[in-house]
Amino acid sequence: LISVLFSRALRVHNAKLSGLRFYMQGRYTDAEPCFRKAYEAADNLSADDPIRGDILMQLSMAARAQGNFDDAEQFGQRALACQQLAWGDDHPYTATALEELATTNDRIARYAAARSLLERAVKIREAGQRRDPSAYIACLRSLGELWCRTENWEQADLCFRRAFEVIQRLLLAPPEQLVIASDLSLVYVHLHCLDEAEAVIQ
Hints:
Shape: elongated
Low-confidence stretches: none
Oligomer: single chain
Radius of gyration: 19 Å
Helix content: over 70%
Number of strands: 0
Mean pLDDT: 92
Largest sheet: none
């Protein structure tokens, strides 16, 4: 029994690793079959095994990169369900699944659905910001960018300012400050607050 379990785990690991290598090389059509093979090998794992959720997220990313948004959405929804079952509703891994599914919805212009997912992710990231402030900042920025795409500049301003305040409080690296400052400046231009736009860049 132990040898069977080990062999199955090895198949999952090798297929997943091959998929990740292809994905990092931009060979998405080669990556997807590897992830599918990994998921098939992991099919006998318990429903709350986090490996299932990880592989489904990778399948979602590979499908999205190929423009196959129906599969990407389906894999993303299943990944979220798996991560919630494995880790609970408020775990950072669940936040990652929410962010990935939001990205798919954003790409197909389902902005309301993407916003709802990101708002849930922001709450999780906010609770864990001491442990991982960069993830919180990135999530706020994603939500801010989404508000920009729907031209809700006031809400975008709130997200970017929250991110900028975290960066300033923690004295994070200048590149991160510059990115958020640039986002804020653009929002202020749309809000016709030109003095604020100039001040934040300085």
